[in-house]
Amino acid sequence: IMDPYVPPEGDARLTSLSKDGVKQQMQKLRQTAASQLAYVPLCLGKAGIWGEKQEFGGEPRGDRGCFLCSFNKQKLHSLVTERCYPDMVRGNRYRTIRWRFLESLEPPRVVHVRCDSVMNRGNLYGQVTVRMHSRQILAIYDRFGRLMYGGEEIPKDVLEYVVFERYLVNPYGTWRMHGKIVPEWAPPKDPIVKTVLIPGPALDPSQEHE
């Protein structure tokens, strides 16, 4: 992630009327000024950030959750970058994931835009950080069907800073999820309950087990 976005501390908790809230708004203005400089190369690269911004928080994002639950590799590769794919599927091979998007608590908002070249000046990549505040349901089961994390009846408010990337040289390229930014002040996630194999009865070698 080029020049990672630094989320303001207390985001989604502070009001604009409080002292810390006003300070947060001033910091937001400074970060926005730097992002404005990157809008021009993005538009020249036919990225169409303003015309395609609905893709950041719309159906493609929900599809990522559905395709991850079903482990559809082909669809996932079309929606996430090569850097993001291993992070999404690592450790989930023998697990069952139940995920559901309920509602957006706030409209998705572009908070950070960067454009840079790789190897040479003409090889341009664009990255956009989108702030998403939504309500979701997530439950993870082990291979024996025992609940390891979350619950299908427990909705949670989730604040995410998702980075999308696009190869600007390709006129048919699409925005793909590239990673997430986790702020240092974010509360720790609930631990995953580690399940173990229940030992069977101790048998005498001369006995047969029914």
From TrEMBL:
The keyword Ribonucleoprotein applies. Residues 44-182 form the Tim44-like domain. Keywords: Mitochondrion, Ribonucleoprotein, Ribosomal protein, Transit peptide. Transmembrane segments: none annotated. It is found in: Mitochondrion. Signal peptide: none annotated. SMART domains: Tim44. InterPro entries: mtLSU_mL45 (IPR051975), NTF2-like_dom_sf (IPR032710), Tim44-like_dom (IPR007379). GO terms for cellular component: mitochondrion; ribonucleoprotein complex; ribosome. Component of the mitochondrial large ribosomal subunit (mt-LSU). Within the mitochondrial ribosomes, required to direct the nascent polypeptide toward the tunnel exit and position the exit at a distance from the membrane surface. Belongs to the mitochondrion-specific ribosomal protein mL45 family. PANTHER family: 39S RIBOSOMAL PROTEIN L45, MITOCHONDRIAL (PTHR28554), LARGE RIBOSOMAL SUBUNIT PROTEIN ML45 (PTHR28554:SF1). This is Large ribosomal subunit protein mL45. It comes from Edolisoma coerulescens. The lineage of its organism: Eukaryota, Metazoa, Chordata, Craniata, Vertebrata.
